[in-house]
Amino acid sequence: MHRKLLTLAVALPGLIGIFAYFHATRPAAQEQPAPGLHVNFNDKGLTPKESLGMNIFFDARLSEPAGQSCASCHDPARAFTGNNKTTIGVALGSRPGMFGFRDTPTAMYLATVPKFGSIDKDGNRVPAGGVFWDGRADTLEDQAKGPFFNPLEMNNPDPQSLIAKIASGPYAAEFRKAWGERIFDTAETALDAVAASIAAFERTHAFQPFSSKFDAVMRGEAKFTEQEQRGLGLFTIRQKGNCASCHTVDEASRDPKKSLFTDFSYHALGLPRSMRIPKNATDPAYFDMGLCGPFRTTGDTTPEKDPQGCGLFKVPTLRNVALTAPYMHNGLFDHLRDAVAYYATRDTDSKKWFTDGKKFNDLPAQFHANIDVETPPYQRRPGQRAQLNDEEIDDIVAFLRTLTDGYKP
Ligand code: HEC
Ligand code: HEC
Question: Is the Cβ atom of 58 under 6 angstroms away from ligand 1?
């Protein structure tokens, strides 16, 4: 019965089928999707393990108290972002008043993310790869185990309690069938299977559809407007946006996988402190320093051992960026245009961004050397012209809007 419903749901083109299915079977706590869904699931059907991953991803029974699923913060209608509907740039957990420290990034286009390591870039070795804003999980499997037990997210006390919910839930039989009759005997082993199912779901076509206008243009099936074309130029030209040096795009390739709009490397943008984040507002000594902590605790990544990692965050993909507000690791910007404008005038009009007059106020002064002030678009000095004028900012934003999946000519 359950499997039949599921097959029916994934057979329908698009998300609406998926939502109809979950709406019918999920507890009432799960909210309706926003109108205007832009991300399409693969209508060719999912493998049993991918289907399980989907069930788990949308299962709002799996938090403590119940009511929050992965999709509460990774809403398909918002390209798998959403912060559980808060407006302060960080997510609300399953308990009232429990806010996280970072903006929810999209869970899309991570199927090929490499493990944390380093790459060659402009003649230097720079850190790259990994999952989370600070790359502290090596794989989607590692990542998927985190939110269930994070007290500021789904807040389960231990694997046993999580697995008990799955073992008594509506897809327990499918779970046993896919992973073995005795899979629920050991909570740790069952948790590995949960994580592997979620990761398999996150690697499906639905999470990397490559169905934007940009992709259509690359395949020769659509044409940019003049403004979008100018925006792409500004995005790639080194002396202008130079955006593509981090947000990778390969215009010459018809293979969209060459244009993930990230090289998964780490950089310090020197962003202003967000006082909307409760932790920032109440604790002036607290700094989110990305690669050197406080959440990345493995390897040589403490402020003492790796001062060069302080302030660096992973380059996020810009695919679907028009749907993923707010922006940056601290959810500082509500509007895409502001995120782009920051690059344009960070150094020429810094008072606009650092209203307390203290430039780079979200990173202790001893680490300011980690913030690039030489490579475009960061090479301007106070009093000079902005790196991008208003019209050029608009052009880039117009181009970024072509990265939304589900484009229909
Ligand atoms: C309460 C909100 C919330 C819930 C619930 C939640 N996430 Fe997240 N997710 C976040 C935030 C915030 C981050 C970034 C955290 C960081 O970088 O330290 C994140 C990061 C991620 C990433 C990494 C994206 C990247 O670019 O590296 C993936 C993948 C992900 N979550 C999947 C999941 C899955 C799977 C679940 C359910 C098991 C889940 N999330 C539940 C808020 C949430
Ligand atoms: C040197 C590398 C680099 C360059 C060049 C660069 N970016 Fe970024 N970009 C990043 C990093 C790193 C982040 C995340 C920073 C953070 O949150 O701390 C980011 C974040 C963003 C975001 C927010 C995305 C989100 O999901 O929150 C947007 C939009 C963006 N960049 C657009 C651009 C544009 C447009 C340009 C060119 C004008 C550009 N970037 C140039 C590295 C770069």
Answer: no
Range with the poorest average pLDDT among 27-41, 143-157, 240-254, 272-286: 27-41
What integer is the mean pLDDT of 277-295? Answer: 95
**Cis peptide leading into 76, omega within 30 of 0?**
no
| CA of residue 237 relative to chain centroid, distance | 26
Buried b (16+ CB within 10 A) or exposed e, 296-317: beeeebbbeebebbbbbbbbbb
Q: How far is CA 293 from CA 170, 284, 298, in A?
A: 39, 16, 10
Q: Is 144 in the pocket of ligand 2 (CB under 6 A)?
A: no
Q: Is the CB of 240 under 6 A from ligand 2?
A: no
Neighbouring residues of 71: CB distance < 8 A, sequence distance ≥ 6: 57, 58, 80
Question: Does ligand 2 have an atom closer than 6 angstroms to the CB of 243?
Answer: yes
At 343, the amino acid letter reads Y
Integer Cα distance of 332 and 366 in angstroms: 23
Average pLDDT, the chain: 89
pLDDT at 303: 77
Residue 384: pLDDT over 90: yes
**pLDDT of amino acid 306:** 83
Report the C-alpha gap between 126 and 9 in whole angstroms. 44
Q: What is the mean pLDDT of residues 215-229?
A: 96
**From ligand 1's centre to the CA of 86, what distance in Å?**
15
